[in-house]
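hi! just following up on the protien thing from before. the input was this:
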Amino acid sequence: KTVVMIVDRTTHKSKMQLKLCGEPIQQKDQVKILEIIIDNKLTWRAHVNYIIEKAVKVTEIKKESSLQRGN
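and the predicted 3d structure came back as:
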């Protein structure tokens, strides 16, 4: 699946209609490549939030596992 992300630190939203073989390409504000989330402002906020959510899930699973074993 092909998407386009325009990197621009200004506050205005730039909407271009790009096409590939006559088909429009979807424009996104962030993309995930090799488990790294990159946003169009290059702030890393989305990626940091994603990592925190994953860590919380793992911590909850380990906590539940230890409670079931009686530790």
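The chain is about 35% helix and 25% strand.
Strands lie at 3-4, 19-20, 23-24, 26-27, 30-33, 36-39.
cheers
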